[in-house]
Amino acid sequence: MLLRLTPTLIVTLLVGPILAGLAMALLPAFGYLPALGGESLSLAPWRELLAQPGLARSTGLSLAVGLVTTAVSLAAVLLFLAGAAGTRLDRWLRRAVSPLLSLPHAAAAFGLAFLIAPSGLIARLLSPGLTGWERPPDLVILQDPWGLSLMAGLILKEIPFLLLMSLAALPQLDAPRRVAMARSLGYRPTIAWLKTVAPALYPLIRLPVYAVIAFATSVVDVALILGPTLPPTLAVAVLEWFNDPDLSMRFLAAAGAVLQLGVTLAALALWWALECLVRRLGKRWLVNGARVRGDRLLRLAGRGILLANTLAAGLGLVGLALASLAGFWRFPAALPDPFTLQHWQRALPTLGGPVTTTLLIAVAATLPALVLALAALENEQRGARRPAQGRLRSALTLLYLPLIVPQIAFLFGLVVLLEGLGLRARLGLVIFAHLLFVLPYVFLSLAEAYRRLDPRWARLALSLGHSPAGVFWRVRLPMLLAPLLTAAAVGLAVSIGQYLPTLLPGAGRVATVTTEAVALAGGGNGRVIGVWALVQAALPLLGFIVALGLPRLLWSNRRGLRGTP
Amino acid sequence: MNTPTVLRLEQVRIALAGRLLVEVDAEIGPGEVLTLMGPSGVGKSTLLAFIAGFLDPAFAAGGRVSLAGRELTTLPAEARRVGLLFQDPLLFPHLSVAGNLRFGMPRREADKRARIDQALAEVGLAGFGERDPATLSGGQQARVALLRLLLSRPAAALLDEPFSRLDRALRGETRRLVFARLAEAGLPCLLVTHDHEDAEAAGGPVIILE
């Protein structure tokens, strides 16, 4: 039966292109690419790569950005969860997670740039009162050589991601009882959580943490907006070489892509070593009996970082909106004067095409992802009698592969491969590349709800004479409508935000709001950037509004189905 | 139907990892209730899952189960015509009360609507058809679950502690209704419980597992 083949199909679909792509990056990296005259294996590309000025710095930057971003994001999430006490602020911060997650990386990065730039919103609000600045200060804040603004831009998005992953894992741990037990032994609440819940939570969110490391070491769009330029991070350098009109640079780019894979693997290895160290040191700390000191500080730190993060993302969007409506905006003035719609009016004719393309790609990638995810999960439910199940289910951990292998490392090779095969269906290739990243998120988003649905519903329906297919269409699907729509919204959001998987397979000729917005980064016309980044931010949000609203509308008369996210 | 609906368990044995959990040999006639009693964890619910066709593959089961002369163990769950009542009423939250009843009825039944209205009226729920099941009280939900089972025209019923979630006052009343209606329908019933009052009210033979 077709259903039974879906796990295999999914794994092949995800693993095949990645392996092929990696292979096709490895071969040119060692000089073999007959299409460009590379007939024999050689180390020339590597010699050329090592001779590139600033390579060591690029490599070091990528490594540092990956590790620092992950460490700060994880620490902030753990501290926040430890200190969260169900106050109104805590609930508000939690609710902000989903919209923050739907915000594309590029839009968040632009928002941050508009916030912290020397002429940004923060400097305006503080000037001239606190700073005495009458003109934008001559400070390098954006694209600083240390990559600090890049890290900040990534942390902005990775905190909500890790927080959501943790919130999904927490119900298994019965955290309130653990904390209550520790508190009855005299531990302050935050310390109690960190000592009794955090050690059990970490293994459950390890894969998402690794995905953050991989993403942050190899990100391109955020690095183009906030990252240093001379030299840029490694992934950006590789992209520049790849896009060079001189095609012989492809060999250099391939070597760079392989190096990027190595950097990401090195970051993962370093993190793993760090895990071992923390585990060893933590063992003593867990049972050293300290239970009171530092509680307040830790709690304030967690809440403080999360609040700052949420506000930064929100204010960044406000900054984008102001910029997009600004006529004349003298420096220390907090608001532009006058406001004008002319940037929007001027952008409107050029927005239509990319918006349509973006939505077309997003829908075309999300629908097959939903079908595949549903088929795999349905197969899992029906297959309780087949012993091969355990193996296939663990094979589905391979879903994380596209999230852990750096995009530039395998997309590069995939493009080389497809060009070699003479494939010209640009839009089709882009949709397929998006599917590689949409499918894992759709599956992960849906799996939780699907597996948690009480098995007695299906048994009951079967015992009433309905076939397994009937149970799927008439019981599971309607009962899981809300999580299904959320998964669809997640898929759309993931697709809308993709930069490299649009740029590379599309050969730069498929224009989406994301590629257009990022392309504006170099130009520095803040008003136009504001328009495009806002449009980019708004599209995924629409999906989530529909996903939340539709079940309420359809099930307005069914209390048992309302309020289930 | 020519063969009387008798549920026959012949040397049914269920084991987990080599350890024998349940061993039953019994015959339940039409309208009769066999009660299985015992502490939790002895495999009472496992036996019900085996009969209904949902046994987890981790268990090893042997023996024959036949209903009205049909061998059940080789049939898929949906073809066994064995109705279930759980601790929770489990009314489908996306369907109305009438929708839940209709969901269980055989496809080509005539006059579905009239039968549903009549069935609801018989248990004091006249006019509840279009209600959202989540707005019903616990006792009302239990009655709808019973009706759904009866209207699906099963050949036998399996009850898995169906009264344990109801409060005391409601329990006796619901119990009387359930057993009266099951007997009236002439269904062989297997009841699993650890409440002695359930066993007494059922009035049939009792097997105690330990």
TrEMBL record, chain A:
Its main location: membrane. It is found in: Cell inner membrane; Cell membrane. GO terms for biological process: transmembrane transport. GO terms for cellular component: plasma membrane. The chain crosses the membrane at residues 61-85, 106-126, 146-170, 251-274, 306-331, 351-377, 398-418, 430-450, 480-500, 529-550. Residues 55-270, 355-547 form the ABC transmembrane type-1 domain. It is a multi-pass membrane protein. It holds the Pfam family BPD_transp_1. PROSITE patterns: ABC_TM1. Keywords: Cell inner membrane, Cell membrane, Membrane, Transmembrane, Transmembrane helix, Transport. Belongs to the binding-protein-dependent transport system permease family. This is Putative thiamine transport system permease protein. It comes from Halomonas shengliensis.
From TrEMBL, chain B:
This is Putative thiamine transport system ATP-binding protein. Keywords: ATP-binding, Nucleotide-binding, Transport. It comes from the Bacteria. Residues 1-210 form the ABC transporter domain. InterPro entries: AAA+_ATPase, ABC_SmlMolc_Importer, ABC_transporter-like_ATP-bd, ABC_transporter-like_CS, P-loop_NTPase. It comes from Halomonas shengliensis. Pfam families: ABC_tran. One of its GO terms (molecular function) is ATP binding.
